[in-house]
Every structure is written in structure tokens, then in C-alpha cells.
Amino acid sequence: MKLMWFHLMPYTELPEDFNKTHPSVWVDIHSSLFDPKRAHHMYNDFMDELEFAADCGFDAVCVNEHHSNGYGLMPSPNLIASSLARRTTDTAICVLGNSLALYNPPTRVAEEFAMIDCISGGRLIAGFPVGSPMDTCYAYGQNPSLLRERYLEAHDLVKKAWTEKDTFTFSGRFNQQRYVNIWPRPIQNDPHPPIWIPGGGSIETWHWCAEMDYVYCYLSYYGYKAGLTTMQGFWNEMDKLGKDRNPYRAGFLQFVGVAETREQALELYTEPAEYFYGRCLHVDPRFATPPGYTTEATQRAGIQSMVSRAANTASYQSKLAMKATGMKEIVDGGYVIIGSPDEVVEQIRHVATSLNVGHLMLLLQYGNMSKETTKYNTRLFAEKVMPRVKDMFPEWEDKWWPKPMDKAQRAQVPAFAPRLAAE
Amino acid sequence: MSEPQTLSVEVNGFPCRVWRKGSGPTFGFLAGFGGQPRWTPFLDRLAEKRTVVVPSLPGYPGATGHNVLDTHLDWVVAVRQLVEAVGLDGCDLVGSSVGGSFAAEMAALWPASVKRLVLIAPFGLFDADNPATDPWAQRADQVAGLMCADPAIWTEMVAVPEGANSAEWPIEMVRASEAAARVFWPLGDTRLAKRLPLIKAPTLVLWGAQDHILPPAYGATIARAIKGRSESRAIEGAGHLAHLDQPDSTAKAVLDWLA
């Protein structure tokens, strides 16, 4: 099994009364809450944490894209990924991802991902989300009725830009480009970097991933218990389509807090978890369901998107997070796995088995968790949990993992050392 | 209130429902936000004096095919085809909200196709100093009060019609909202202001005095921009879909203008 370390990069200093005094963490969150000098420290802490996770031996570090969002400070995950490409050596760099319809022309994504792949020596995982309604339709003003069609066309353009050897003309419904010829080209060119699709529970997305042979990632904030129905739906569709049950077809996001004992874990992780489920998921429902964003087939199937769920339960969540029982609900619901290493091992094995997921993306930093606690959580997971879950799914091959350059051929990337200090 | 006659025409290969009722000279009505889920008292008042033809625009109740229309030009051409197909070419034309915007485009781009024009709070303009409300970023319980001065009227308008599939109906209403978004997202501004001076048909601009979607001040702007004879009037006690709130006074204003 692959264990991947995911950062959302939340703003860690939203006020205690945020939910009462502000309508939404997303789209129209007020600029007065953002202190750039504090963000300087947050970004540097977060990047330290990602590098630390790579050092600890996680299979990948993961970043993602959000806009106008108080719990996701990465409008451009590619900037962070590019830095990680220089500051890590063997870890896969998973950008989950670039919302294709937001780039004009989408060729930009093909170029930037090719740059990251070249800089990192072929360690890129290229994620292509449609993007949430808040990011795409509201913060970026994209038309919800055209978003998926634009997304699919942009995907075709990016993939062709990676694989076509000669300069070509792209004459699409939404994009026309006379000369497409990207420089640089990705190192992973057989045929292109692995493509992963983070999505909600849409049937069309499942079918498309199966058809294109892409990894489907369900990035839920509500943990394995709530994710079970979605993942079962996914595997049922794979069965119907005659695809095998290779667990590496799937990725799943899970919050975890591990400590020496369960009591200690509760003591360490209650505040950051309640911060996340209270303040960070305080999304105004008016931004959750732009018409046309959810396809009619998905509406008919009665599948509620994760963001829609976040928005509609935000007030409920914030209420319970403010009560002493908040953490109990969060843990009982399986949103966050809490416990001693033994307990976490048992639960992770259960998650991987019951959801049949080979790519487990772990959120070991969430809410306002400090760098110190994050590192503790990360190191303990790497030392005491990882070795006891890595052996899962030995019978399956991960065909969707990056194939980097031979290590001996890769550039030596020196650690940063200021010249004056060295003298 | 008797039922209208139901016909169907095709635009781009997709069916569009057409309702027809009344006798006397024919005129067309292009519905607004939410389309025309059911026949209404406003249309009955009109049908008492004239023949009313109500074609559903692509994506609104009774019609599909919105998802092949990618640009504003695609939409305008589709509406033009629809107007021709139902025999409204050269007739008077009345449009509300979304439909009002297209009625204005018909009159501007094909001046001979519209005899007289009535616009009820048409989309198409946006003034940053007096912005329109975002109809697609609302909590579910706020929508009715934005569409009509009396929220109960909107709620009744969009309730499952008799004989409709109750599971499918909410999806149809989302589709209607999507069809509006497809052409008017994000601000409702189609640069209609540039084409208003091309309108030659005598034009009455009606606006619900309590329109919480589009500012009533837009009405005067539109009337001023139209080169031909035009007049702007408020409908008291009415919201964005003024003809739903005040069927009698709105119908009277329309019929007087078209008399």
C-alpha cells in the first residue's frame, strides 16, 4: 500500500467566533482575517512539514488547489510542488491537482506539470479535478453549465500536448490554438505522467476513470465510515465495466491523529480537529450548488457532493464542535482516526480493506495544528504505523505510480546553505 | 381556467413545448426565470383578448437542448428559430426576465420580426454601481422571496404540476436554472445595452417595484436607450416576475400597449 502525506494548508488563526461573525470560510471570507506576515510563517511551516514527511519516508507528498479559501492557501499548488521538487529526492510529488477549466489556455497546465516533472526527475502525479463549485464557479466565475465540457476538452488538449510529437492545431469547442508545442516535455513520456482524478461521487467520473484507466480519488473530509458507500459504488461500477479490483485504481483521504496512548491523542488532536470541522468547514450553503455543476445522472442517483454536504452540515458541525462532545462525534463518525499506534494500525488496515484503497492519503496536519504536533504525528505514524500497513495488497501492481529517472542519473540537489554562514 | 392547446416544435433537433390559447391577433410570450411550469392567471387574462403563444426556450420546462448552446449567439439564433417555427414572426412579442432579454434581442437584430415589444424586467444589463443580485448564489429558502414579492406565488408556480413525474420534477427545475445560468452567468450581462438602440418596435418596459433580482432603475436605462417609441412603468406590489405577483395590472398594461 502507498501512504501519502497530504497538506491542505489551512489558515491557522481564524478567530474563535468565526462562525458567528462570518458567513463563509470560502468565496467571500473577509480579507481583514488574513495577516500576510503570519501567512509567511504558515507557508514556511507547512513547507517544512511537507519536506519532513518526505524525509520520514512517506511515498508521496500531496498538494491541492483552492481559491478564496480560508482552509486552503494554495491557489497554485504548482508553486509548492516546484519547491518540493528541489527539496525532496525520492518522494512522489502528487498535485491533486489543477482544475483544468480554470486555465486559459489549458496548455498552461501541460507546461507547468512538465516543468515539475523535469525538475523532480519524473516524480509527478498529475491530478485533474473539475474543482469545487466555490473554487470554479464562484471564486473564478466559471459557468457551471459549461464547466464539465470545458474540463473534458482541456483534458484532451493537455494530454495531446504531452504526447503529440509535432506542433499541432487544436480546434475545440471552447479552445482554439493554432500552434500547440510545449517546451519542456515531461520525463514520464510512456505515455505521460500518471493521471489521477479527485472527484465526488459522480457516476460519470467513475466511468470516465475506468475508460481512461485513471486513478479515482475520493477526497472526503468525513472519513472512512461515510466514504464506504461512495467507494462501494465505485467498485460496483468497476465490476459492471469488467475492470479488476486492483486497489491502486483508487485513492482515499483520511485524517489521522496518532500518539502513545488514545488519551494523549485526544489531548493533542481535539483542538485542531474541532478547528477544522468547526471553522474550516463553515461554508455558506449558497455557494454549494450552482445549477448545472451536478450532472442530471448524479442528481437522479441522489448523490450529494462532499462540498454540498460540508455546506449543509456546516452549521450543525460548528454547533457540535463548540460543544464538549464535538471531538466525540468527530471520532465516532470516523472523520478522524485517533489512537495509539496499535489502534491506528488496526483502523488503517480496516479502512484499506473495507474501501479497497491502495493509495491512502493522510491528513496528519489539520486545522490549527502546530508544526511541532504535526511533526510528532508524522514521525510517529512513519515509525510505528507505516511499517505495519505497508505490506497490504502485495498481490496487486500499482500501475499508476510515477516512473522517475534512474537515481544515479538524477541531478544532485544540494541542501540550502547560505554562503555567508558557510564561510 | 381552461387548459391551453399543447403543440411541439423542434430547435436543433430538440423538442420545445408550445402552449396556445385564446382568439384574435396572435402574440408571443417568452417566460423568465424558471420558465413556464404551468399555465398562469396572467396568460389567461391575455388570452381573453388575444391569441397567446408561449414557446418554451431550450432547457426550460417542456423543452431540452440547452446543452448544445455554448455562446450567446447560439442562444439568440435558437430563440430566433423557435419564434419563426411557432409562427410569431412579425407579431407582437412579450418577454419576462430571461425571456425578456431574448425578446429584446429579436427586436434589435431582426427589427421586422417584432411589431410591438413588451419587456418585463429583462436580463442583459449589469451596472456595477447598482448591481443585480446573484440569483444562483442563494440559500434555497431565499429564492422564492427574490423571484416574487409574495414568495408563496413562486412556490406555487414551481410546485410539481399535475401529471408530472415527481422524482424528475426537481431535476427539471434545476435544469431551468441551469439554462438561465448557461447564458447569463455570472452577472447577467450580455452587452444588450449595445444593441438596444437598434430596437425600432414601440417598446413598453415594465418592472416590478419590488424586484430584488434586477434593480428597477435598469428599466429607465433601457427605455432611454431604445431609439423607437418607448416607455418605462413600474408594477406596484410586484417582484422580479411581476406578471406572477400582479397578473391583472400587468396584463392590462400589456394589452393596452398592444391595442
The percent of residues in helical segments of chain B reads 25-40%
- Count of structural domains of chain B: 1
Helix content range of chain A:
40-55%
- Helix and strand content put the structural class of chain A at alpha/beta
How many runs of DSSP E, i.e. beta strands of chain A?
Answer: 11
Any idea of the CATH class of chain B? Alpha Beta
The first-level CATH class of chain A is given as Alpha Beta
Enumerate the spans of chain A where pLDDT stays under 50 for 5 or more consecutive residues: 314-325
Number of domains of chain A: 1
Spell out the CATH superfamily of chain A.
Answer: Luciferase-like domain
Strand order of the largest sheet of chain A: 1-2-3-4-7-8-9-11
Order of helices and strands of chain A: EHHEHEHEHHEEEHEHEHHHHEHEHH
Most strands sheet of chain B: 8 strands, mixed
End-to-end Cα distance of chain B, whole Å, is 23 Å
* Lateral arrangement of strands in the main beta sheet of chain B: 1-2-4-3-5-6-7-8
CATH architecture of chain A: Alpha-Beta Barrel
Mean pLDDT of chain B: 97
Oligomer: heterodimer
| Shape category of chain A | globular
CATH topology of chain A: TIM Barrel
CATH fold descriptor of chain B: Rossmann fold
Entry summary:
Chain A is an alpha/beta fold and 423 residues long. Chain A has helices spanning 18-21, 36-55, 77-87, 107-120, 133-139, 147-163, 203-212, 223-240, 262-280, 296-300, 306-322, 326-332, 341-355, 371-385, 419-422; strands spanning 2-6, 60-63, 92-95, 124-127, 168-171, 176-180, 195-199, 215-218, 250-258, 336-339, 359-363.
Report what the structure shows.
The complex is a heterodimer of chains A (423) and B (259). Chain A has helices at residues 18-21, 36-55, 77-87, 107-120, 133-139, 147-163, 203-212, 223-240, 262-280, 296-300, 306-322, 326-332, 341-355, 371-385, 419-422, and strands at 2-6, 60-63, 92-95, 124-127, 168-171, 176-180, 195-199, 215-218, 250-258, 336-339, 359-363. Chain A is α/β, with parallel strands linked by helices and 423 residues long. Chain B is of the alpha/beta class and 259 residues long. Chain B has one domain: Rossmann fold. Chain B contains 9 helices and 8 strands. Chain B has an 8-stranded mixed sheet with strand order 1-2-4-3-5-6-7-8, with helices on both faces. In chain B, strand 1 (5-11) and strand 2 form a beta hairpin. In chain B, helix 1 packs parallel to helix 9 (247-258). The chains are: A alpha/beta (423), B alpha/beta (259). The interface between A and B is medium-sized, with 21 and 22 residues.
